[in-house]
């Protein structure tokens, strides 16, 4: 049989493959947390490096400030992400309990909500009533349906700790890259800055490319867009340091 590019897609849509996929519990994606942490880590440390270079500070000052910001901002960002995900979980659980209470107190009203939701999707007559009866027969399915259809909330279990650790790890790993040239004493300050610039640009571009592979976007376009965003942040930091040196005498 001649191989076709559609073969893997056909295999994924075989009834048994679909059944396995739908029966597998959904897990929250950690890729957005890694992307957020990586971009912010690189922006944070290279912004410090750029500002220090623009202000004329030494390599040791840039290194100390960079690592201090790397650890403090990385921890702060991880905690913020943890609290954000936890608040989202609490909100979803609150809505779930509220819907459970509504089903207990006004079941016919909740059935009417299901009826109108699926009527708007094109169901009518006897088929619509069968849908309403089927959903309202299972309490958990009923609550989950209201959670998604009425409130627009996801049912995927969120993990605040996993999101926080992913963000922190990506922040530290990527954010450390622009600081590495400043650990090389045989380079002068300009060479260290240019090497840091090259590493930061590479990190931005790779993050953009990685994001495109996960979300099926154009690779080069995504890489360049992330590079431009990071470059703009670094440029602002450099300009701020340079202006501070000129206007306020900040620097060596």
Q: Can you tell me about this structure?
A:
The chain is mainly α. The chain has one domain. The chain contains ten helices and no strands. The chain has helices at residues 7-12, 15-23, 31-55, 59-105, 107-119, 125-137, 139-149, 160-176, 189-215, 219-248. α3 packs antiparallel against α4 (59-105) and α5 crosses α6 (125-137). It starts with 6 loop residues before the first helix and ends with a helix. Residues 1-5 have low confidence and may be disordered.
* Share of residues in helices: over 70%
Q: Please describe the biggest sheet, giving its number of strands, its sense, and whether it closes into a barrel.
A: none
Give the CA-CA distance, first to last residue. 74 Å
Mean of the pLDDT scores?
81
Number of helices, counting only DSSP H or I runs of 4 residues or more: 10
Radius of gyration using CA atoms only: 26 Å
Outline, from the CA principal axes? elongated
Structural class: mainly alpha
Q: What are the defining features of this structure?
A:
GMP synthase; Ccc1_fam; 0% strand; disordered N terminus; 10 helices; mainly alpha; 252 residues
Can you lay out the helices and strands and say which pair or pack?
Blueprint: H1 7-12, H2 15-23, H3 31-55, H4 59-105, H5 107-119, H6 125-137, H7 139-149, H8 160-176, H9 189-215, H10 219-248
Helix pairs in contact: 3-4, 3-8, 3-9, 3-10, 4-5, 4-7, 4-8, 5-6, 9-10
């Amino acid at each position: 049989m001649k191989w076709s590019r559609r073969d893997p897609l056909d295999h994924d849509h075989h009834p048994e493959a679909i059944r396995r996929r739908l029966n597998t519990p959904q897990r929250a994606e950690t890729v957005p947390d890694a992307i957020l942490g990586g971009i912010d880590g690189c922006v944070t440390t290279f912004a410090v490096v750029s500002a220090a270079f623009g202000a004329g500070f030494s390599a040791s000052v840039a290194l100390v400030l960079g690592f201090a910001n790397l650890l403090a901002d990385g921890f702060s960002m991880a905690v913020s992400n943890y609290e954000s995900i936890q608040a989202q979980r609490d909100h979803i659980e609150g809505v779930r309990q509220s819907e459970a209470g509504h089903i207990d107190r006004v079941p016919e009203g909740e059935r009417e909500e299901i009826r109108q939701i699926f009527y708007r999707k094109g169901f009518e007559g006897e088929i619509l009533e069968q849908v309403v009866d089927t959903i309202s027969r299972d309490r958990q399915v009923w609550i989950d349906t209201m959670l998604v259809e009425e409130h627009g909330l996801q049912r995927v279990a969120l993990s605040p700790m996993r999101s926080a650790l992913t963000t922190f790890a990506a922040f530290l790993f990527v954010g450390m890259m622009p600081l590495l040239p400043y650990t090389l004493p045989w380079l002068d300050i300009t060479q260290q800055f240019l090497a840091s610039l090259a590493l930061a640009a590479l990190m931005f571009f790779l993050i953009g490319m990685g994001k495109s592979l996960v979300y099926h976007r154009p690779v080069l376009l995504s890489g360049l867009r992330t590079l431009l965003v990071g470059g703009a942040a670094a440029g602002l930091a450099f300009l701020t340091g340079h202006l501070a040196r000129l206007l306020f005498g900040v620097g060596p």
